[in-house]
Amino acid sequence: MGMTDTVPAGAHPEISFYEEKGRYGGIFSWIFSTNHKRIGILYFVTMMTFFAVAAVLGVLIRLELIAPGKTIMEAQTYNAIYTLHGVLMIFLFVIPGLPAVFGNFFLPIQIGAKDVSFPAINLLSWWLFLAGGILAVVSLFTKGGPIDTGWTFYAPYSIRTETNVSLAVFGVFLIGLSSILTGLNFLTTIHRLRAPGMTWFRMPLFVWSLYATGWIQVLATPIIGITLLLIIFERFLGIGFFDPTKGGDPLLLQHMFWIYSHPAVYIMILPGMGAISEIIPVFSRRTIFGYKAIAMSSLGIAILGYFVWGHHMFTSGMSVTARVVFSFLTFFVAIPTAIKVFNWISTLYKGSIDLASPMLYALSFIFLFSIGGLTGLVLGALAADVHLQDTYFVVGHFHYVMFGGTGFAFFGALHHWFPKMFGKMFDERAAKLAWGTLFVGFMVLYFPMFALGWHGMPRRYYDYLPQFQSDHVISTVGSWILILGLALMAINLLAALWKGKKAEANPWGGTTLEWQIPSPPPPENFEEIPRVDRGPYEFARETV
Amino acid sequence: MSTIAAGVATTGHEKHVSDYIGAKVGMWLFLFTELLLFGGLFLVYSVYRAMYHTDFHTAAKELNVTLGAVNTIILLTSSLTMACSISATQRGNRKLSILLLVMTALFGIAFLVNKYFEWGAKFQHGIYPGSDQLGMRENGEILFYGLYYMMTGLHGLHVIVGVLLFSVVLLFLVKKKIHQENFVLIENSGLYWHLVDIIWIFLFPLFYLIT
Asked: Do B47 and A226 touch (CB under 8 A)?
C-alpha cells in the first residue's frame, strides 16, 4: 500500500506506475511493491531469467544427442540437465507464466479494479516464487549434486538416489504455495472487485480463463504440496509410504503426483487460451464467436481435468478397468478444447484480419496446439499408448502443447500487451522475422520427435542406436534455429525498451478496458472506477 | 495466515474501506486448500488401511484412547471459547473477548503438552519412524505409525500456528485494532481454529477408535 498512499489518485493523472514515488527508492520500490503491475513486471523479469537458463539447458541436451554415445557430457550430467530443464521450464515458466505475469498486470485492469483483493499476499507469492526458484538452482551446487530423477520425482528412485532431491523438491513446494496464493487472490478479486456493470458475461475471456485456472490452483496444488513433503520425509525418516520393502506402494506416489500434475497442465494452458481469445478478436476486428461457449469450456476443462490423471500411468501397472476408464474419460477433454478452437476459427471468418506479430503468434498457437492436442488423443488411446509410452512421441506431444501452446501464447500475449506494459512500440518487421525463425525452428526441432518415438526411441536416454541419428541431427539443428528466433525476439523487445517509439493508449484498436487507459497505465489504473455497459468485444461501436 | 492479516489491511488501495466479504472469501478458499492438503494424507491412509486392515487393527490398539479423548475434549471446548470470544467482540465486550481468547490459546497449548507426552511415551518404546524396533514389525504397522506421526504431526503444526495467530489477534484486540466494527481478523482466526478442530475430529476415530 505504501507507495500509492503518497500519490493520491487523480493528483498527478499524467504519471505512469513507473514514475510513482513510494515509500522506498531504487530496487526496493520494486521488490517491496504491492502494486499488481510492478509485481507482474517482477515476475516477468525473474521468469525470463529462469527461462533463459532452462532454454540453454535444452540446447545442451540437443547437442549431446546429435550423435550416439558421449558427445559433450557424461551420462550423469545429462540426467541432471534434463531434470533441471524440466523442473525450471514446468514449475518456473509454463505453470506460473501467463497468470503471474499477464494475469497480475491485466486482471485488475480488465475488470476495472485498482488492484487485486490482497496486494500484500500478491507480493508474498512473488517472494515465495523467487525463493523456490533459487532453492532449485542452489540444489545444483550443494552436497550430493544436482537432482537426476526427472521432473516427475517417481519413487523408489527419488527416495534412494544420493543426489540433492530434498532441496529441489522443497523449492517446488514453495513455488506451489506461491501458485495457491495467486489463485486464491485472483478468485477473490474476480468475485469482489469487478467494476459496476462488469457482469460475469461482460468479463474479457482472459479473465474467465484465469478464473478457471484459479480454481485448479486452489484445489489441485495442495495435493502436490503434501506429496512433495512426503518425499522429503521419506528421504529423511524412511517412513516407507512408497517403499515396497516396508509395505509401501511406489505407484501411490505416481497417483498423487498426477492427481495434481494433470490438472496442472490445464493451469498451464488455460490462461494461454484466454490470451489467444483476446488477441484474435482485436486483430480480426470482430466480436468473438461463441463467447459463452469459450467461457464455459474453460470451466469444463478445469472440471474434466481432475478425472483423467491415470492416462499418465497406462504402463505403470494399474488394473485394466482403471486403464479403460481413464482412457475413456481422457477423450472427453478434447470436447471443450475443440469448442475453443472452432470458435476461434469462426471468429476469423469474414473478419478483417491484420497479420500483425501478436496475431501471427495466435494463429501459430492454434496450428501447433492442434497438433499437440491431436497427438494427445493418440496417447490417450490405450492400445496406442502402450507402444508409445515413454518414447519421443510423448516428448514431441508435450512440447507441442507446452511450448507450441503455452509458450507461443505467452509470446503472443507479450507482443500484444508489450506497448501497454512498457509504453513503447517494438519494430514490427523484426518481430515478424523473429516469429518466423521461432516457428520454423520449432517445427524442425520437435516434429522429428514424433517419428523418433514412433520408431521406438525412448525418452530420457543418453545413448541410442545409429538408426535414430538422422532424426536426432535434424532435431538438434532445429534447436539452433529456435534459439536464434528467441534471441531475435529478445533483442527486438530490448531494443524497443531503449529506443522504441512511444506507444499510444490503444495501438491495436482493442475494446477491453486496458486499452482505455494510458500506456503505461497510471499507478491506480483508473482515475475513477469505470462503469461498464457492454460486452468486451463490441467492435461495431468503435470507429475502426 | 497472512491471508487473514492482509485481508483486513488491504482492499485495493482504499485504506479505510475494508472488504469484509472479500476477506471471508479469501479465508474460505484458504481453508479449501488446507482440507486438500490433509486430503492427500487421508487418501494415503485409506489406501493402506484397505491393504493392511489387520495390521492397522493391531497397531491402533496400542494408542492411548484416554489421552486421545482428553485431547478431543480440549479441542472441542477451545472451539467453543473461540466462538464465544468472537461473539463478545461483536457485542463490544472487549475484556470478555480477550479472556476467552486467552483461554482458547491455553487450551491449544494444553493439547500440545498432552501430545508431547503421548509421542514421548511412544518414543520411549522405540516406536518412531526409522527405528529398529518399529522396523521389525509387520509392514502395515510400520505404515500405521508412519501415518500417525505424519498426520498428527502436521495437525500439531497447525495447532502451533493457531496459538501464534491468537497472540497476534490478542495484540490487535488490546490495541483496539479489532473492535465491534472491524472483527474480520478474529472471525477468520476462528474459522481456521474450527478447521484444525474438525481435522482432529477425523484423526481421533481413524487412529484411536477403529480397532
From this structure: no
